[in-house]
Amino acid sequence: MAVNEVDVVVVGGGAAGLSAALVLARARRNILVIDAGSPRNAPAAHMHGFLSRDGFPPAELLTVARAEITGYGGKFVTGTVTDVAPTGTSGFSLSVSDGQPITARRLLVATGLRDELPTIPGLADRWARDVLHCPYCHGYEVRDQRLAVLGSTLEAVKFTQIVRQWSYDVVLFAAPGTLSTSARHQLRARSIGIVEDEVTRIVVENDQLRGVEVGGGRVFARDAVFVPPRFVPNNHLLTTLNCPVDDAGWVVADSTGRTSVAGVWVAGNVVNPRAQVITAAGEGSAAAIAINADLVEEDIRDAVRNLDLKHLV
C-alpha cells in the first residue's frame, strides 16, 4: 500500500493525533499523520499535569512521540489539508498543500483550537509566558505571586475564585457595572481584590510583566495575568464534511470521538476545549481503538463478500 493509500489519515500532530497514531500503528494499521507544525502550546516552555512528563518541554514530547510512531511504521507529511471529500460509504480523498493526493479508509481530525484574546495592547506578546489561561497548567509556577484576572462575566468570576487557590494576592479586573452584588460579596469574602475599570494595556519592562494599566493611567503592580480566552475550534475540515456542530460551534461526537458522518472521528481540543495535554492524549487513544474496531468490521464484511464470490465462480 503506497503512502497515498492508507487505512487512516490523522490530521493534526499534537497530543491527541499522535496518541491515536501510535495506537493505530501498533495495531498494524497503515497510518499517515498530516501536520502543519504549529502547535497551540508552542510558546510554552514546559507542560504540566502529564503523569511522568511534568515539566517536559512540549516540543520535546512531540519529537519523542513522532520517533515512536515512525518506529512502528507510521508516516508523516508536513503540510495542511486543502480539500477533503467522501469516497464511497466511509472513505475519503484528501489534497495536501504539498500537492499529493491521498485516499484513506478513515479520518481522524485532531486540529485543535485557537485562542482569541482581548485586544489589549501588550497582552498577546506575553501569551504563555506571564499571560496565562489555565491555572491547572501554570498556577503552581506563579504561586504566591501578585496575580491578575481579566474578565467581566460570571464565568470569569468563577475562574478568579479558582485562581485564588494558588495565591493570596489576586485582583479581578472587570468592566465597570458588570459585576453583580453577589459576585462582589463572594470575591471580597476570599480577599480577592476588585478593580472595576477598563484595562488599557499590559505594562512590560525589561521583558518582564510589571502590571496592569487601567483608565486614567493607573497601574496596578502584578506579576502574572490570567485571561479566560475565547476558544475557537479549528473545525474547517469537519464543517466541509458537513459534521453537525452545536450552538457554540463544537462538533457533535460520541464518547469515542465518532461523529455522525461515517468514517470521521475527532479527538482533543477540536472537540473538547478543556482538554489538557494528558486528556487529549487519552481521547486520541480512545478514538484510535474505536477506529480500528470499525475497520475490523469492514475487513470482516469484505472477507465474507470475497469468500462468497469465490464460491460463485
Automatic annotation (TrEMBL):
**Occurrences of domain FAD/NAD(P)-binding (ranges):** 7-283
Which reaction equation describes what this protein catalyses? [thioredoxin]-dithiol + NADP(+) = [thioredoxin]-disulfide + NADPH + H(+)
The record's section on Gene3D superfamilies has:
FAD/NAD(P)-binding domain
Q: Which superkingdom heads the taxonomic lineage of this protein's source? A: Bacteria
Instruction: Keywords in alphabetical order, please.
Output: Flavoprotein, Oxidoreductase
What is the protein's name according to its record?
NAD(P)/FAD-dependent oxidoreductase
Species name for this entry? Jatrophihabitans telluris
